[in-house]
């Protein structure tokens, strides 16, 4: 799973591919769909402090995870034994919803595949 954070100014941050984050087709597809919307994607380290402060201050307005099985899943709350960040009652954000609809639509053939990602099997 890969995490994405949407900031109120519209840019999106996802951890870079250095260290423990693996490159994936779903991650690459999501990054492309975000860029198609004219939004900036930053692939960089995001610290727990930055995430906590951003969510608590309202600077981070959406969080979602992506992966092969989950496609795109909204994240409302991050919890550990020591703290909870965010809200379990949080509604999915507009970008999260639109990305999920577009990507699943491409997968099911109901949305145009502008990037040539689909292959017809015979």
From TrEMBL:
Q: Which GO terms describe its biological process?
A: amino acid biosynthetic process; branched-chain amino acid biosynthetic process
Q: Which GO terms describe its molecular function?
A: branched-chain-amino-acid transaminase activity
Q: Where are the transmembrane segments?
A: none
Query: Which Gene3D superfamilies does the record cross-reference, listed alphabetically?
Result: 3.30.470.10, D-amino Acid Aminotransferase, subunit A, domain 2
Q: Which UniProt keywords apply?
A: Amino-acid biosynthesis, Aminotransferase, Branched-chain amino acid biosynthesis, Pyridoxal phosphate, Transferase
Q: Does the keyword Cytoplasm apply?
A: no
Cofactor dependency? pyridoxal 5'-phosphate
What InterPro entries has UniProt attached to this entry?
Aminotrans_IV, Aminotransferase-like, B_amino_transII, BCAT-like_C, BCAT-like_N
Similarity comment: Belongs to the class-IV pyridoxal-phosphate-dependent aminotransferase family.
Name the PANTHER family on file.
BRANCHED-CHAIN-AMINO-ACID AMINOTRANSFERASE (PTHR11825:SF44), SUBGROUP IIII AMINOTRANSFERASE (PTHR11825)
Q: What name goes with this protein? A: Unannotated protein
Where does this protein come from, organism-wise?
freshwater metagenome
Source organism phylogeny: unclassified sequences, metagenomes, ecological metagenomes
